[in-house]
Each structure stands twice: as C-alpha cells, then as structure tokens.
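Hi team,

Filling in the usual template for the complex we talked about on Friday. All components are listed, including any nucleic acid strands or ligand strings, so the model treats them as one assembly.

SUBMITTER: L.P.
PURPOSE: interface mapping
COMPONENTS: two
RESIDUES: 1197
SEQUENCES:
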Amino acid sequence: MRRADRDGTPPVMARFWVFARPYLPTYMVGLLLLLLTNGLSLWIPWLLRDAIDAIEAGTELRVLAGFAGAMIGVALLQGIVRTLSRLTILGNARRVAYDIRNRFFEHLQRLGANFYDTHRTGDIMSRGVNDIRLLQSFYGPGVLNFLNTVIIYVATLALLLSIDVQLTLISLALYPVLLLGVNLLSRRVYGRSLAVQEQLATISNRAQENISGIQQVKTYVQEEREISDFRELCAEFRRRNLAMASVRGGMVSLIGIVSGVGTLVVLFVGGRFVIEGRLTFGDFVAFNAYLGLLAWPTVAMGWIINVFQRGAGAMDRLEEVLDQEPDVPAALDEGSEEAPERAEPVDGDIEIRGLTFVYGARTEEVDPRVATLRDIDLTIPRGSRLALVGPVGSGKSTLVNLLARVYPVPRGTILIGGVDINDIPVSRLRTSLGYVPQEAFLFSRSVKENILFGQPDASDDEIERAIDVSRLAGDLESFPEGLETIVGERGFTLSGGQRQRATLARAVVGDPRILILDDSLSSVDADTERAILTELDVVMRDRTTIFISHRPSALADMDRIVFVERGRIVESGTHDELMSKEGAYARLFHRQMLERDLGPS
Amino acid sequence: MRPSAPPSIHEEERLGKAYDARMVRRLWSYVRPHRALVLLSMVLLLAVSAAQLAQPYLVKVAIDDYISKRSLEGLGGVAALFLAALIAEFVLRFAQIYVLERTGQNVVFDIRSHVFAHLQHLPSAFFDRNPVGRLMTRLTSDVEALHEVFTSGVVVILTDLIKLAGIVAILVWMDWRLALVTFTVLPPLLIVTWYFRIRMRRAYRRVRLLVARLNAFLQESVTGMRVVQIFVRERANLERFHEINRDHRDAQLKSVQYDSIFSAAAEMISSVTLAAIVWAGGSRILSGATTFGTLVAFIEYAGKFFRPLQELSQRYTVMQSAMSAAERIFKLLDTEIPIKSPPKPARIEKRLRGEIVFENVTFGYNEGEPVLHDVSFRIRPGERVAVVGWTGAGKSTLIRLLVRLYDVQEGRILFDGIDIREYDLQELRRSIGVVLQDHFLFAGTVEGNISLGDPRVSPERVRQAAEAVRADRFIDRLPKGYGEEVRERGSNFSVGEKQLLSFARAVAFDPAVLVLDEATASVDPETERRIQDALETLLRGRTSIIIAHRLATIRGADRILVLHRGRLLEEGSHEKLVALEGGLYSKLYRLQTSES
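RESULT (copied from the run log):
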C-alpha cells in the first residue's frame, strides 16, 4: 500500500508528459499543421480586404475574379490542412487514452485482494471510465484549443495592430471584461450544476430506498406520504435547475453578444476612422472579420482552464491506483508465464505451522487479539480429504484463501511439499489448485468458455469429464444453446445450483493436485451433492481435497474434519471420533440432520 | 389470476423514431397545462431572432448611409441602435432561456411525480419482476431525456427554422440576385452535412456500443478479479482487454475522422460562400447595382446561416432518444394495478373485533410453484397465535397475503367474516398493525416514524406509545429527541432501537390485529429483556399472529401453528404439541432447549 512520495511528485505537466511522450512527433506535426491552418484562415479576411479596396478603387472584373479564385484556393487548402491537424491531435488523444486504459487495466490485475477489499467496484470504475475520459479531453480538445487559442490570439493581434493600433486597443478594451464575466458566470454555472447533480442523487437515493422497501411502504400505508415527500424533492430539484438556468442563461446570452460588441466598436470608431480617411474600407471590413475570429477563443479560454484543472484531478486519482504496489507478487510479473499451465504442479503434504493472520495488516505486525486466524497448526497429507466446519465468520474461507496466497502469507507458516509457499511462484502455486470460490462467479461468456477459463487448451474429453463430475450434463440440455449458451445478465440466467456446478467444472477441468471447495455446493440439492462427491472421489484419487461445507451428508466420508471457531481449531478428527466426543461438531450434526429431514427443499 | 408484468427486455439501447404522433400527443397532455409559458417562450424566441437579425442590417445602413457618404453625423445614431439591438438580444435571450427551462422543469416535474405515484400503487409482484435499477432508469435518465426535448429539442429546432427563414427573407429583400448566388452553395452544404451526419451517427453509435462493452468488461473483471488471479488468467484477460480497447480506440478514431472532415468541410464551404459573395457582390457594386453595405451584410448573414443547418441532425438524435424514453415511461404508466380497493368497499364500523379466517388458501409467487397449499385456520378475536416452521415454510407469505401485498390464488381470507378483498385496501392495511422483521424505518424524524405522519396520531400519543414500550429512554437521550433525523434506512439506530421504534409505531395506532414477524437478529441480553417486556405491552388485548423464533414468545402463545413446506402440519397449545410423539414441533423444541 505504498504511495509515491508526495515530495517527489513531479509537477502536473510532467505527469501528463509521460503518457504524451510516445506521440511527441505526431503532436509536433499537429502543431505545424495547426500553424498552417490558422495562417490560411487568417489569409482569407486579408484577401477580402484587398478585394474590397480594389472594388472601391473601381477595379476590373478580372482582378475581382482573381481575388475570388484565390479565396477559394486558400479555402480548399485550408480545408485539407484543418482536417489533418484535427486528425493528428484529436487522434493522438484517443491513442493516449488507449495506452492509459491498458496500463490501468494491467495494473488492476497486479493488485491483490487487500486492494479490492478496500476499494469499491464503483470507485475503481469511476477512475477507469470517467477519469480516463477527462484525460482524453485534456490530451485532445484541451491541447488543440489551447494551441489554437494561443496561435489565433498572437497572429490576430498582430494583424489587428498592423491595421490600426488605436482601433485595436479600443476594441479589445472590452474583451477582458467580457472574458471575466463569462468566466465568472461559468464558474457559478459549474457550482450550481453540482447542486443540481446532488439533488438528482438525493432523488435517486430516495426512490431507490422507496422501491426496495415498497412492501413496507404498502404495509404501513405510506404511499401518499412517500409521494408527497418525493414531490418535495422534485420541487427542490426544479428550484435548483432554475437557479442554474438563471446563471446559464446569463452566460449563454453574454457569449452570444461577444462578437456583436466587437462589431459595435468597429462600426462606431472604425467607421469614424474610415470617414476621416485613416482607414480604407477594406481595412474596416477585415478588422471586423479578425475581431470576430477572436470571439470564440476568448470564450473558450475558461473552458480550457476547466479541462486542464479537471484533467489534473483525474490524473491524481488514476495515479493513486497506479502507484499501489501489489502486496502479493503478481503472476503477470513472473517469468514463465507464457504457459503456466505447463509448469510442474505443486504437490505434497500441506503443512500449516502456527499461522496467525490479520486482514490488512502487514505480516510482521500482527495483533493476535484481532486476528481472523490464530495459531493454526494443521497437516493435510497428500491425497487426503479434509473438511473444515464451523460457524459463519470463523475463518474457514480465510484459511483456504491463504493456501492460494490471495493475501500475503507470513513466512514459514504454510508449506506445500516442504516448500514455503512464499518461495513458490504465484502462477505455479495457483495453477496447481482447483479452486471453487464461495461466490459462484461466472463471466458473461459461454458456458464452455467459463469451464475452460483456467485451461483454454483442455481437450473435449477433459471438458466432458468435468461436466460429468459436476453433474451439468442434464442442465446443458435445457440451456438454449448447450455449452455455447452465454451466461450472465445479458445472457441466460443460471440458477444458483447451476452456477455453483459450473464453477466446480471450471476447477476440476485442469486435473488439479489440490482441490478447494469453499462452501461451494450450498445451492445444490443434497442428492446431487452426494452424487458429485462420489464422482469427485474417483477424480480426486491421489489428489488432496479441502472441503468447506455445512451439510452432514458431505462430511461423513472425510478423512479428517476440523472444527474452526473464532479463528481457532477447536476439534479435529474423523466423523466418528467427533460424534463420540459430543462436542460442537456433534451438536451441529444433529441439528443439520433434523434440518435435512424437515428442510424446505 | 396472476398480475401481468411487462416482459423483461433490454430496451434501453433501442432508438426509435424521432417523431411519433402517439407519443407526442401523450406528451402534449403534460405540456398543455403550461401552454402559456410555452407561448411566451415562443414569442421571446421570435424577439431574440429579430434582435439578432437586425444587427447585420444596421451595419449595412451604417456603411451605405454614413461611412460611404463620409458623413459622421448620424453614425452615432446607428451605433446606438446597434447597441440597443445587442442589449435586447442579451436580455431577451436570457428571458427566453429561463422561461423555456421553467416550462421544461414543470413538465418534467409532473411526469416524474406521476411515474413515482404510479409505482407506489403497483403490486408487489411487479417489483419482483422488475429490478430496482430499471425502475430507477425510468425515474432518472429517461425523464432527463424528456427534459432535453425542451432544452435542445423541439423549441430549438423551431427557433433555428424561424431564424433561417428570416435570413432568407432579408437576403432576398436586399438583393435577390445576390441572394440566389449565395444560395447556390446550399445544395453542396446540405449534401455534405447529410452525408457526414449519417456516417457520424453510425460511428457514434458504434463508439457508444464499444464504450458499453469496454465498461462491462472492466466491471466484470474488477468484480471477478479474484477468480482471474486464482486461475492465473491475467495475461489472457489482458489480451482480451487490449482487443476490446483497440476496437474502441479504432471506433473513436473513425468518429474523429468524420468529425474532422465534416468540421473542416463546413468551414471550407463557408469560405467558398464568402468568395462567391465577394465575386458576385463585387461585380454588382462595380456595375452600380448594389452597395458595399449590402455586401458586408450578406457576409454577416451568411455566417449566421450555417451553424443551425449543421446542428439540425444533432437535434434529430436528441428527439430520437427522447421518443424512446417517452415510450418506456408510458409503458410503465400503462401497467395495470390489479390489487386495488373495490368500487364499493365494505364499511369498517368502529373498531374491528379481529377475527381472522384462512379458508383453503393456496398461493405461489411463481406459476406452478405454490408456497402455501390449501391452508385453513381460524383465529378468534383476542387470541395470540404463534406460527413456527423452517425458513421457506411460508410463514412470511401468510402476512403478505393478509395485508394484500399479494392476492390469494385459491381460497379466501376473511377478516371479521368479510373477504379482505371487499375492504378498502388502505383501511384494511391500517386496521392491521404489522411489525416486520427488518424494522424498516422511513426517512424523516423519530416522531414521524411512530406517527407515520397520520394526523390522528398526536404528539402526545406518540410519546405515550414510546413510553409504553420503553423506547422513550433512548429517544430522550438523542440530541434532538423525537425530532432526531432518521438516516438512510435507520442506519443511525441499533437493531434493538429500531425494534422498539417499530413496536411504538404499532402501539400508537392501536390496531385490532397485530402481526409480528419476530426478529432473529441477536441483541445483547439487556436489550433482549426490554424487547420482551415491550412485546408484552404490545400484545396485550389484541388478536395477534406472531411469526416466532424465540422460545419464550412461542410458549406465551395461546395456540401454535406449525407450518411445513407450505402446509399446516400441526396445531395446538405448546403442551399438546410437545407431547405429540415424533411431531415436528416436539423435535424443534427439543433441539432448541438442548442448544440453549
């Protein structure tokens, strides 16, 4: 959980620079094209000026045609150059965003369970989606408009000054005022739009609360009150929207008259200069055109500042994730990863020695009073079947999670085949395990892809066998497209039992040396579970099985049963031994036998 | 007799027509009450356009009448008029934006409130079938999409059209020959716009699709990260992400391409128009057919002409998504309300006696999966009955049927001898005091949670009720006492406190029948004792049905109903049932006592 040293944090621009660097040549080309585009677009009013002066002087049609032709030529050229300049700069932004997104995703895959325990999915998503989008508009339109504004301002100012210094100063005197006004209003619009968003969130929360509690609302006859409360929230929402509209209206109207104000000055002062003979008529028209060109960059200034500020915030939030160091070595960073499935599997007795574990704490500073697991000593001989039993929250899942090194494991506490698991490459350790998690998580892919998840190269026979073991064959027939059925929200919905059995098939398809079932057959009915266990006995011959379950029927055949309570092993032995003890396990067993007889299923 | 629910399809992505007469008529019914505002904003729009279009004409006047004639006198007057036009534009546009927003907000307020009110009356079965997320979308994004119709839809389209017509009229009036030349660039502009907008829309749609796919993949990977890591699929997963990300980038680049070409082409065409005006206008000036002022005004008007044309197709997309949002909203509003009060409800005379009879009741949430089978029993007025059974036996369903959250499929339920379906729905629910297991607290104050905002429950009554169940002790310790705010779902209260509050609520209403779903959550012994005391107060002198989990509660009942797999298995007093050899209750009882 190390953060980059704050003092050593490079300044904002330098951090943006890192991602832009590979595209520097393209950005340079973009800048050149932009200079050229603006040069061309500023040429047109100049041609207009000369044309009008020529007309005033009573020129020939031929000369006029020449001006018109030149304008068209410049326009065509400018069209091409402008297209290219936008393509390079805006395209770059997409490429940079692509890189950032890849980098972000890659890093997410390095981070371990501790990170995911402390960061909500919504939070991570917001960084990966909104923040990267903000950066994209920084690297694209932000950079483009910034460069454009600078170029246009410098060039236009030079041209205006070359036409008439005094007129330039008079007409630009009002611009800072307008700029200030627009900025002020846009900041207020932003503030008020936050208030609007806030109220919308309040409305959403209230509606969500209402809908999820609709039975209570009805039972207590609270419909009318809920409606009137909701209307009140909506009325406040309307009020805030109108408050925002009043500033937004001011801002939009102000922006609308920026170029008009310029025209007014040119008309009044410039017109006077023409009459006095200080300016030609062409100067007058061109001056007005150039002033018009300044209107948009003036307004855009505020927007650019905003994009830069929000981009910096987004960069901060992204780096907060990117700077996190994984607390368990990431499989991505290990050498032999091109085919981890072919690496020699880990095998042998599993020894757990004096294991004490606290979530989120560093391995060396464990406070035993808050420990989830305390002084666990346990040997699981190779090829044996162990059951972990105990109340919810007793630490069973934590123990099997540690076997897969999902959390950092204290040195010397877990050994497989005599080797500390901290010395086994993570990818090798994990590919040797068949893991069926408590929550039957499947990806929105086909059933087949899900089963093959860890072993994409498994043969048809192996799939067949995995399906057999997990008793999925019958279900597959009822799926619309059998093995190819897409599961998940947008696809076919599997029942809880079907999901669990699919995750079992996913775990056994690779013929793992060690199979871990973390209470993963709870939604499967008792008969099917028994059949699955019988089948597993065959498959898992000479293999180690660790089994967390609450069903008595599942436990009777185990080689050893360990009863865990509050992070400690309180009883251990075979089923018969524990039954004759008449301790915690025996009580649990009696209760569950009764429940099975009477249970709802 | 199942309530019909709409089929669950993913309709969010669908884009409909931009104009659907049926939808528009229905939307109009919401706009109608605010038509004065609509009219006002239209008038303002016309005025804004007039103020805007006057400006280039004033420039023409200034040039032709004063600058060309080298006459300083009067230039100030024109400039003043120009200033007036600018101020008018500023003020009128401000007013127009505000009035339009006000109209839109009023309409949206009505629609949102209407949707919410309708939701309140839909049956529970509807909510079983429609995920909260989908209903939230109706109330938020769909309603906001309708709002867009006002801010950047219909009205803006109308404005643009009016402005375009105005410009055409002025140009023709000033110099129709020059106007014709100017208009020759229109066809290419329209063709280019049309060509690119179609492609851009398609490109944007693909971008949206890929954004959705990218986000879905990211979300799924984050949720399933542990599985990915345990199966060591990081590399494969990363490649998959690269692929989607690449597709997404390429789609983005495609849209950038169209966007760049289109904006450059539009600008190019406007420069070409300028050249055409200079050429045609210039030659007409040379021949004395037109003036410099006209030429400059033409250049100005042409500039104002292009933008609305380019934006028309964006408006089209706004209208499209608004129409499909409207369709989804109206579909929700059209969902029928099957559980409602009869047209002529049975009168509830004074206080009900509190006799409840279940007669051969069969019910299931899903077709062909009955949860209750042919259940019959009678509860006498004043009797205290405990219902016991395993999870899933159908105990909570009994309560839901009694207060008509669902209607029975077979058989009937009688309350004081009358079928519950003959009472007014709300009267029925008010006559039955229900204390649910999760002790739901509503947003509002402590007092509001006891009185439920019912004017018949006075503040004194609230305090008496709280005292009766001894909830007053912790309420008095709250910083604001009875005025303390209840945070989201009562997260600022402990389980025990919430329980006492819901007891107080039931006492305050003094119902003839009390239904209690006893909490299973464990509390400390002290609280437990207080809750048991409060419970005694609560139950005294009422017909009560308790879904019981605590032995003490069960033993205190006059009669016990043992429910098993949706059937009534055993019935009788505690002593009788315990004595029943091999009975379910006696087994449960022995297990309970052996464990405690």
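MY TAKE: The radius of gyration of chain A is 36 Å. The beta strands of chain A are 350-357, 373-380, 385-389, 414-416, 419-420, 433-436, 514-518, 544-548, 560-565, 568-573.

Thanks, L.
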